[in-house]
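hey so i finally got around to running both of the ones u sent me last week. sorry it took forever, my laptop kept dying halfway thru and i had to restart like 3 times lol. anyway pasting them below in the order u listed, first the sequence line then the structure token line for each. didnt double check formatting much so if smth looks off just lmk and ill redo it

first one:
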Amino acid sequence: MSFALYMIGFIIFMAGLVWAAVVAGVPQLYIGIGGLVILGIGIFSAVSKTRAKDPPQN
């Protein structure tokens, strides 16, 4: 799976969570902080899932 495809899916997931928080009446400051934390987790996991494996050393 490519990095871009992984990130697109994660951003759609994050947008759904943010929308649910807005509907639930969570203050914007907390939504922003939570969104940044979730985005950081998404980037870390996307890099780890799509990173090419190192070739074996001889």
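and the second one:
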Amino acid sequence: MENPLEKLKSQKKLRSQLTMVGVGALYIYMVVATGEALWQNYRVNSDIAKLRAEIIELQDKGVQLRNLIAYRGTESFKEREARRKLGYKKPGEQVLAIPQPYSPDVESGQAKETTEEETRAKLNNFQKWIDYIFG
């Protein structure tokens, strides 16, 4: 038979160990919950920063579009576009149309640059071998 005093001590020790396990589990839970809250706070703050940057960008774009709308509403823009697109002219003004010589290498006012591959493709086989051997 076990001594009642020792039985009480062992029960007390068991309670103490269970309390320590409970406190340890609670501590781990609090650390994990705090870590999750900090991570969520970081994500929310980074989303807020991205949205603020997007707001600034959209505001700048809005200002540019309002300026463009205001400019396109002016008489000088309308006159310039009518001259350019419709060929309008002021009374007493003479318009000259200068024809451009046709060149298949020129597209829409920009000269076409030939690449080294295109130049090589125009060479015959003998010339390609000479280039390959002598560098």
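quick thing i noticed on the 2nd:
The beta strands are 106-107, 110-111.
anyway thats it, ttyl
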